[in-house]
Design goal:
68% helix
Length: 276
């Protein structure tokens, strides 16, 4: 059996997130802090969902390079789930209702695994990967603003995850295209990913701001509206590009600083291998 190497590196860092349960990892940006906290809350359940979909499709992958990349994708996503779960457990000490929100997210994804076809789950995965890759580009572009005076453990956690989202941005899309070339399915998966992301995040942000005594402050409401506008401004063009007939994730430009980050963080193990 021939083995093919992937350029996707599987790193296994560990972040001291147990020290970071205050939630406001950047006190100067509480609404952004809680928006990205809410985004992370789903990751311990979304990542296994994505891994399951990719693994179920592996028997249909004939391209040995894509098979190796899919193997590395799953390994990276498993590491993301582990580290974000540790951070979310730390957050629960101050925000105990997060457990209820997590349970709802987990149950909805378990229902989808039982109910939905592999084609649909791959379309949802590929759509969600568009969101995460664009958030990753945004983070690299604006990290100096987001992380100035921020908790370095959380800054490092999110930067690591962002870099690996850019690194494996093509995998879910290519696996979907291997299984189904339906344009309508691809578009529907993107819409569903956007809708679920917003539905999962919005009540979590509200709750965390309530715990911190900010939800009813006019200044906080205005800042939260700005964060929402910024997110829409960032994600809408990426979604439009995804819907173009000739789209491929590899055509998306890599952000400044990403290549240097990869050079600085080629540690733990070498390139992942997958069986052809």
């Amino acid at each position: 059996m021939t083995m093919h190497e992937s350029n996707i590196q599987v790193r296994r860092p560990r972040f001291e997130v147990e020290q970071s349960g205050s939630g406001l990892w950047n006190p100067k940006l509480p609404e952004l802090s809680h928006t990205l906290n809410a985004f992370q809350l789903a990751l311990p359940y979304l990542e296994p969902y994505f891994i399951d979909a990719i693994k179920q499709a592996q028997g249909q992958i004939k391209d040995p390079q894509l098979a190796a990349d899919a193997y590395a994708f799953c390994a990276q996503e498993a590491n993301h789930a582990r580290e974000h779960k540790r951070y979310c457990r730390a957050l629960q000490k101050k925000y105990p209702r997060l457990k209820d929100f997590e349970t709802n997210i987990q149950q909805s994804l378990l229902r989808s695994r039982k109910r939905d076809s592999i084609e649909w789950r791959l379309a949802f995965t590929a759509g969600y990967e568009v969101i995460t890759a664009q958030v990753a580009r945004w983070l690299f572009r604006c990290g100096h603003e987001w992380f100035e005076g921020a908790d370095p453990h959380i800054a490092n956690l999110m930067t690591w995850h962002a870099a690996e989202e850019i690194e494996h941005r093509h995998v879910a899309y290519d696996v979907l295209r291997t299984v189904s070339r339906s344009y309508s399915l691809r578009a529907a998966g993107l819409v569903a990913a956007f809708a679920k992301t917003y539905a999962d995040m919005s009540p979590v942000v509200t709750y965390m701001l309530q715990v911190d005594g900010l939800a009813d402050q006019p200044e906080s409401r205005a800042r939260r509206r700005k964060v929402r506008r910024d997110i829409l401004t960032e994600l809408a063009p990426a979604a439009a590009r995804y819907l173009l007939p000739g789209y491929h994730p590899s055509k998306e430009a890599e952000p400044a600083g990403y290549a240097q980050w990869r050079r600085d963080h080629a540690y733990d193990i070498g390139p992942a291998r997958g069986a052809a």
